Amino acid sequence: MSDIVNNKERHRYELAVGEYIAATYYKIEGNVITFIHTEVPAELGGKGIGSKLIRGALDQVRADGLKVIPQCPFVKAFIEKHAEYQDLLK
Which of 42, 49, 68, 80 is most exposed by smallest CB count within 10 Å? Predict the structure, then answer.
C-alpha cells in the first residue's frame, strides 16, 4: 500500500517524511480532479519525494476512475515525462 494519504478535508494528497509533509492540492468537480499546487518542504528537496507523491496520487486517481487536469506545473511535467499516466488527462 502507498504511503500517500488523500486528506479529503484539506483537499490534498499527502506524503509524510519524518516531521515534514509534502502535499499536492486539488479540487474535484464530477469525475475530474484538478491538481492546483504541489508543495515539497525544502528539507525534502532533491530526493524524489515530489515524484513519489504525484505517482501515488495519480495511482489513487486512476483507481477512483477520475480524469486529471494538471494545472500545477509539477504535476503537468510529471505526466509529460511518464507516458503511463497520460491516459488520465482530461
Answer: 42
Q: What is the pLDDT along the chain (90 residues), one digit of tens a residue?
A: 359 999 999 999 999 999 999 999 999 999 999 999 999 999 999 999 999 999 999 999 999 999 999 999 999 999 999 999 999 999
Q: Look at the chain and report how many structural domains it folds into.
A: 1
Contacts of 70 (CB under 8 A, 6+ apart): 35, 76, 78, 79, 89
Any idea what the CATH number is for the domain that residue 29 is in? 3.40.630.30
